Fold each of these.
Amino acid sequence: MPPHRFDLRLGVDVGGTNTDTVVIDRDDHLVGKAKMPTTPDVSSGIEASIQSVLALDAVDVSRITHVMLGTTHATNAVIERRGLQRVAVIRIGSPATHSVRPLFGWPDDLRAAISIDETIVRGGIEFDGREIVPFDADAVRRFLDGLGEPVDAVAITSVFAPVSPRHELAAEEATRSVLGDVHVSLSHQVGSIGLLERENATVLNAALIGVAGQVSQALQSALSAHGLSPVTFFAQNDGTLMALDYARRMPVLTIGSGPANSLRGAAHLTGMDGGLVADIGGTSTDIGVLVDGFPRESAAGVEVGGVRTTFRMPDLVSIALGGGTVVQEADGNGIRIGPASTGQRLLQEGLIFGGATPTLTDAAVLDGRAALGDATRGNGHRTLLRDAIERADVLLAEAVDRIKTSRGDAPLVIVGGGSVIAPDALPGVSEIHRPEHFEVASAFGAAIAMVSGQVDRVLHLEHGKRERLVDELCEEAKDRAVQAGADPEAVRIVELDEVPLTYLTGSPTRVRARAAGPMGAL
Amino acid sequence: MKLDDANLIALARGTAVLGAGGGGDSRIGLLAAQQACADHGPVELVDLDDLHDDDLIVCCGLVGAPTVTIEKIVNGAEGERLRECVETHFGRPVGALMPAEIGGLNGLQPISWAAPMGLPVVDADGMGRAFPELTQSTMNIAGISPGPAFLTDERGTALILLADSAEWLERILRCVTVETGGLAATADYILTAAEARTATVRGSVSLAMRLGQTLIDAASDPVAALVESVSGHRLITGKVIDVERRTTGGFVRGHALVEGLQGDAQRVLRLEIQNENLIALEGGEVRASVPDLITVLDSETADAVPTELLRYGQRVTVIGFPCDPIWRTERGLELAGPRAFGYDLEYSPIEELHAPAQV
């Protein structure tokens, strides 16, 4: 494939219920779409979904040049404690940092699933680049020698590694001298200032290396089965894309990419810059806010599987309400809605499809919101279903109200495969939009996602030099985005963050610049 | 009372509110306190009336840059080192630890230090909030000598400084803190329980715990519940549209702008920052100022946002509430009023600035 070719893009989104794919052209117009059930192994669902979109007449397979995958592999692995690597956890910082040990506060089962053992060895960096004490490489070797089981991966976190990674690099060398070609995650590559959150993310990253290898393998074999070897990206938590080889080393960054994709997809499909977006799936609904066409981000770092990380994600309100949500009589005269869901078995188990489980989709059809299956099959549960859809509307309205930051009515975009359960009007909502291709908005969002480049460095912003140094850093971030595939004409700085590290004049300041731009021909 | 896990969680949310943006990130303090209590058993919180008159109290905490506290977490044995120094110097045993300031991380730090020693922590502190300087202590107002002061770091380095001037100690300790890596553990204003009964802000640990519990218990509107429980005033609800921080004179100084939303649309509140939120201005008018407390809350959860975590786009509610009355005395204002921070303006108590007649 010629390196500069830029033609059709294939976007894939793995959701809890379905795996969606879209193919879009250079002008971001949809050429084809497909929806297949998400499979327990995830990979075969991706293969089936790609297979079915590529089989469409409208899609010229040979023209596909780029593939973007948004996947929940990593999130699911952490939440379900499944397929995780066994990790040796090394912190470099003794005699400092003992007052909060590595993984303190983690859920016990997650810690047991991931960590072989943890240690704090002498070393670490001061805010100004000095050593706290010299790094103790022998302690690393002794720790690794003494572990009673094979090590899949090693997570290494040094105090102030973002200022200087040298002790982490030395620890990696010591690790290789004992374990050879094992996977090593280094914290300075994973996160920013904030030892515990960065360490958590580094340990999760190491634990997810196997999952990352599997999914990229599955994706590549699905593509090569069609004679394709496109440029491949993974969607990451900030809604931008990272190259496949980078994603293989940084799987933790894929966590939370789904909501960002659906918000971006909704913005693009409606042409709206602001407003609310509800992504209604089979099991749950995520509601977020669009500001200038991008998801509003949460203020604090997010929790993943009960573990606090430095990552920022779209600010979301999530409720257990989806197309497959099961409704049942509760004790007394009430009804219970969810959190159980038929998920992808809706088409077999839902009443209107001939099954025996009353779901919100049955209720929506009975209420005349959609024409699906055989509506008369719901008649036996008429009262239950009518109460359920009323209650679901209230839950949805409450969730919309919680995410809103202003009292006035706001427009709401509804996307996702479970959209049929939503009403045509809600309190607090000025108008409801259901764009074309709403059911594949996330895959669309992945396909149109921007490519980003980030530089994160401690600068000595002495008087008079500040502007020049920050400008240089921004240019470097833009260059990185362009190298990753962004259109040089459209790339811009989307985030610039300066945090002085100390109280002193002329002291080091941590500066982080992130540039992003749409995919374009180089 | 014994400080258990539930108490500590409430306490951490409360000390963040009383930090007025400073005092360090209380989440780190919470984790350290939880770990210490898990390892050594819960710490007893005692009232000053329950101590003997001549019991020695070590007023202690961390000094340095908040950004360092979230990265170079302390060893945990600093408290034992400080006690050893104090006992050697005074020739008698220490009876209890006390937070130098109740705000932020420092409101919790003595708990994790006290746990391995089996010492109680006193329900009082030396500020009733967080302030950037050693001089800004109620013990200073009461005429308690700040020296001898003791400093240690994670390496076990120990320093004893004999001086009577809080200004002089502040200057030297701050220099030393830079050398120890931007962070050090200190004890100063060592005093007896009898002295502490009149020289401290009493009940501030349990106050912080109550405020935290208010946030935890509030079903629908935690911000409103908090404002009511601190007799405070909501200054603005909006989003952060600008944050500037610079390092001058040995502190992180800067400002943040909050633009109003909803009923506050068209309004912009400017926060002046020196580690803590010092002054809230609107259209050139003072809406709140030190020594009263100005705290930025997440509009949704009412969690206090420390100044170092302020960021563009955050949805926040800024509240102001009265300081301990001691800070409104002539000496209190001289040490911690607007002029002490270089602002040429007269202090007006927040309740007068927001008196119904003026609205």
Amino acid sequence: MDPRPLHPNVRKLWRVIALMVTVPLIAVVAVGGTLLELPAIVWGALGLAILVPALIVPKLAYRRWRYAIREHDLYTSKGAIWHVETLVPFDWIQFVESRQGPLDRAFTLTQVVVYTAAGKATSIPGLDQFTAESIREDLSQVAGAASV
Amino acid sequence: MPIWFLYDVSRGILGVIPVLFAGAYTLALLVAIGLAFLISPAVRYARFRYEIQGNTLVIEGGLFSRWRRVIPRERVQSVDVIQKLRHRAFGVLELRIEAVGGKQTEAALVAVLPEEADRIRRWASGGSEEPVHRAPEEMSPPLARLTGRDLLIAGITGGRVAVLAILIGYAEQLLGDNSFDLVTGAAERLMPGTSLIVVIFVLVLVVLALSLLLSIALTILIYWDFTVRLEEDRLVITRGLLEKRRAQIPLRRVQAIQVNENFLRRAFGLASLTVVVAGYSSESQEKEESSMLLPLARRDHAWRVATEILGAHAELESAPLPRSPSRAVPRRIIFPSLFGVGVGVVATVLAGPPGAAGFAIVPLAWFFGWLSWRCSGHGVVPGYVLIRSGALVRTTSIVPEANIQHHQLTWSILQKSFRLATVNVHIPGTHRRAADLDEHDALRWFTLLGERGEAGLTGDPG
């Protein structure tokens, strides 16, 4: 199959996560800036330096994300800043798991995580439940021709 | 096994020793602790059980909370036999069994009789538990054996200066802050009229000589009578002077072999070999010693041993390992240089002109960036991936393709602008990075390694 993007909902999920991280940080910067009586431009710039990546990175990450279940292997491409492509030949897959955390559930998404004998090889975070389950089943079917 | 009990109690008695040195205040407390030390071995001994049940080893024990562990035979990575002085006193051995995936030793049988150790070892290597009597002359000739001269050279060329640095740190704490004055004062009396420069010079020489002696002593202690031999389908390594150890590693557990050359050894064409096995416990120094395949050998000999163990062609040594493109050098020195400039500026602002010494980080960063590029080298040959890296210590990892579980192609933003990329190959327990390949080469590697599943390598990659 040709490389596919993730479910569009995952952008919302990532934005929520990014805000959960950055909002407290910006609050700290704002309070700290007021207490230390720094000029507004300094802590304003600092706040922007935290906020802007949080807004941009989910978008870039979504644009970068591709996965493909190919003839002999699983391919993923991810990372807005640090671009990582991973290849996991089916024979080396130890087991596959699908996961749904509370945030995933809120956006009706499911993750698929793939393990080899060297540990967690890759994960596909934003899939609808049906796709995730069929990928999990397909990969479990072909997994593990190679033993450790 | 009463011997075991005696042995454990002897450790308890060691715990009582602090009582002899204690003041009156803490005596009562220490006596209580000492008693606990005496009683707990008895309880632990009474609770500890191990048993071979067909294909599994079952171990249970526990002082406060009971535990039970089941280790299937096919999960066993290696079995190490250790005999420290205290084991010798009681005629027992310690067995350490490492299993796949664990971070620590899965099963430690702290004191077993030699015959019992033999039985468990035979079970672990898949044979029957019955003893096989073999005359010494039937044993395979060792792949390598270290002579006293080798050990001496290994000690002289191996960097164990770190140990001395720790000792110096201790001495300084003991003597207090004025230790330097003490030393220079003593030097004044011993060598009156000498300048501070000479004193420092002499001090450095003394420190170097001491570290050298220490290094030689440690090497002799750890690697005395070092032999490595192939027995059927496993590697057997024996070593040690006061503490005798025998490690056996099933060949199919060998994930990779590493050729290490520090700058000193490289100059003399010497190298050491280490084996990469997934299960070895992670304490670093211990790990380095137990994974040692060959503490010192001529480089070509080391490669011969490595290829023999891997069952690879001997010409692997002469496989071309081209360096990263030269633009990897600026890529590597940009951030350290910026950091150095930053340190220099801050130090100058804070400490005035002497702070400018902080800028010295910059040429240092350049040197190491260049050196790490000089030491780099990568190659894919049929069946193997070779990755060379390092600066002061150059390491060359030989990774059989079949042991690679998954692999990655990564770019940082900086690497993208230099058209460089890194390939990460993941093997059980660890990974190796082929850093700063030309982007196109990296892509070629990525695709090539992806085809290993189709090239008929799927037989037994583990």
